Amino acid sequence: MKRITYILGAGSNCKMGFPLGKELYMNTYKEILNDPKSILNQILELFVLEMEIEQYPIEFAKMLKLSNLESVDEFAYHNPQYELFAKIAISYFILKAEGKPDFDIFDFPEENWYRLIWKNIYNSEFLDFPNKNYGFITFNYDRSLENYLYTTIFNTYNTRHKFNSKRSRTNVMKKIPIYHVYGKLGNLPFEKESKYLEYGLYKELILKYQNKIPTLVKKLFNIIKQSIDTIKLIYDERTLAGELKEIHELISNSSKLVFLGFAYNSLNMTILGLDKTNLDYPRDKFGYCHDFEKNNKNLISQLTAILKNYGIGFNENRYNNIKQYLLEEDGVL
Q: What pTM was estimated for this model as a whole?
């Protein structure tokens, strides 16, 4: 069965409440500078005390703002003394987004393109699951995709096909490979029996400790202390090992690549093994951009030229979101 592999950028799930790079950048310095008693500031202060850090969060936030880089990752590359603060901020905001109290992906909101994936891989016969051959390579830190897919698979098939062991659960999910290029917030319970991080935990903690802020801060501190070890930054050389071999194998064994909400950063393209000297495999590559300014002819020309360099076909049709793109664009689902 031929495989379609989806390459996911921040624009792929921003409609589900996850921050784009620029939003993450702005949220970080604003929360630190505008509210000295914010939860993020209190978490940072605990790290400073426990780890005897010489840098100050306020200086980190000021420099981040004045850098005007619009990227926490890129700022940390130029200012490695603040790498820990950058990872703490990223972990905090992704943790919050995973536990948004006003968004439930299982209520089938309009922007939920994950449901299209599930409908296409579902098969009434478990032995024939998945019905289609998909793979995912994500540059995002959140676990929303694998949490959604595992939850739907478990609640559909578990009664007749007991998933009582980690091995059985892992084997099911291996049929839908999902790789995080720069790591993720943490392992989900079905991925690891110890040192896992439950999905949506922030919502539960807020409800339980909303009147006990010091306890809430300490709980979040302990979670983030664990998650910063599983998050890598964009220019971190450690990303050039480990899973990259499996990622390259997934790409080379795919018949199509579909880029969703991706910024086509040259470093990220090189990491994928898709630089301008290696355009043949796979031959079919498609791209969808989040919030594309369709009436900006100059921008269209620039983006088309960039994608052409990588052998990616860009369709200028007026798709309102990824769900519509997947439904209406030929050959991407």
A: 0.92
